[in-house]
Amino acid sequence: MQGNQDKPAVSVGDLAISDAFAHRFATIVGDVVAQRLRELPGGQPRVLLTVEEAADRLAIGRSVVYALLRSRQLESVTIGRTRRVPAAAVDEFVARLRKEQNEPPQ
Q1: What 3-state class would DSSP assign to 105?
Q2: Three-state SS across 12-43?
Q3: Mean pLDDT split into 10-residue runs, the chain, 106 residues
Q4: What span, in angstroms and rounded, lies between the C-alpha atoms of 53 and 74?
């Protein structure tokens, strides 16, 4: 064992779990749970995403997503007082970015 990182955080019988392992396990479980929450019953993906879900999917912050929405670079819809981002709009945004960045200069 090295330093405090591998010091057992939990001991159950002969099983000792380090803080680092516990953190990795929690991250993996959290990712699985988050993916399940993004799906509808029956495994169907969500059609509309919250701003936070769109930010997670794009690996950017909420404020950047709001800036993209204000500049109309990323499509959104309003339902009542809530703003949602169509999942297809996220895919289209990424495809547009890829196309723009891979086009040869004119």
Answers
A1: coil
A2: ECCEEEEHHHHHHHHHHHHHHHHHHHHECCCC
A3: 53 67 71 62 82 96 97 96 96 95 81
A4: 14
